[in-house]
Amino acid sequence: MPTKIIAVANQKGGVGKTTTSVNLSACLAALGWRILLVDLDPQANATSGVGLEKTEGGSCYRALLGEMPMLDKIQRTAFDRLSVIPSEVDMCGAEVELVRLDHHIQRLKMALEPVRHSGRFDLILIDCPPALGVLTLNVFTAADSLLIPLQCEYYALEGISMINRLIGQLRGSGVNPNLSLFGVVMTMFDARTRLAAQVVGEVRQHFGPLVFDTLIPRATRLAEAPSFGKPIIHYDKYSAGASAYEVLAEEVVKRLKSSQ
Known about the structure:
By secondary structure, the protein is α/β, with parallel strands linked by helices.
C-alpha cells in the first residue's frame, strides 16, 4: 500500500503552517513513525526549522522538471525517523518553469510515486507555499488529504472557502478525485482573549469533528525553536507548545488509523 501524503496548507501566511509541519513531523517521528517532510515553500523555513542548511541545488526543483529522481533529494535530519526534502530560493523558479511543461500540475505527483512506493516512510507531510500558485496546485494534485492550520483570529475562515472550492474542482475534474480534508488545527490560541474562544467555537460549528481537539498556544518557546534549528520537542520538551504538538500528533495517528 503506498504511503499516505498529507499537505499542510493555507494560502494565508502567518497562520502557523510551517510551525505545524515541522513540529507535527517531529512528534510523529518521536512516536515511532517514519516521516518524510517535503519543504515546497521557497522561503525554506521548514528546512532550517529541522536544522538543515538552505543549499543551492538541494531542493526538489530538478526532480519536478523530471531531470533526476526525487529519492535522491531525501536528506536525514539529526532526529530519529525524520527525513526531509529541503527547499531553497530556486523553488521560486519552479512557478515559472512548471507551467511550460506537459502535465504541469501533476509533476509532483509523478516525482513522488517512487518515494510513496519505496516502503521507506509511514507518512509524507508537505509544507506548502502560502499562496495558491502552481506549486500548491501540484501539492493538492499529489496529496491524499489536506491539513489546514487556522489562526485563532477574526479573519480565520477567510480563504477556507477558496480551498474548499479548489478541493471540489480537483475532485470534479478528475485531477484528484479522492482529495479530502484531513482536518483543521487551531493555532496561536490565546486563552486570555474572548475572541480566540469565539473563533474556535465558530470554526467547530463550521467544520464539526474535522477540527482537532488540540489547540496550539501562542507561545514564545515555539517562536524561538526554529532559530535553533530544532522542533519544539527537541528544543524545550516540557513547554506548552511541545505538549500541544505531542497531543496533536496522537490525534493525527488516531485519525490515520481509523481511516485505514
